[in-house]
Amino acid sequence: MIARIAINRTSALRAAPMVRFYTAPVRGEGATASSAGFRQREEAQENQYMRRREEEQLKALREKAKKAQAELEAQEKKVAGLPKE
């Protein structure tokens, strides 16, 4: 009988339902997100990021234009050095 009680308790523990605890959902429109200072800071950071990215793109385009100009000048010199027919 003792063995039967031990088996029943063991099987009861295995069959116990699992309990999951959830935190309350976090809303995006909290006090911090809706404050004007936070919004202004976020906008300023976004603007600063975009400005830096545009500067990098302009720098790359300028370098590409310089290379293309150098290539054009080299081709013009090559054409100028050819004998005329």
TrEMBL record:
Residues 39-51 have a biased composition (Basic and acidic residues). Pfam families: IATP. Residues 28-51 are annotated as: Disordered. InterPro entries: ATPase_inhibitor_mt. Keywords: Mitochondrion. One of its GO terms (cellular component) is mitochondrion. Its main location: mitochondrion. It is found in: Mitochondrion. One of its GO terms (molecular function) is ATPase inhibitor activity. Inhibits the enzyme activity of ATPase. Belongs to the ATPase inhibitor family. This is ATPase inhibitor, mitochondrial. The lineage of its organism: Eukaryota, Fungi, Dikarya, Basidiomycota, Agaricomycotina.
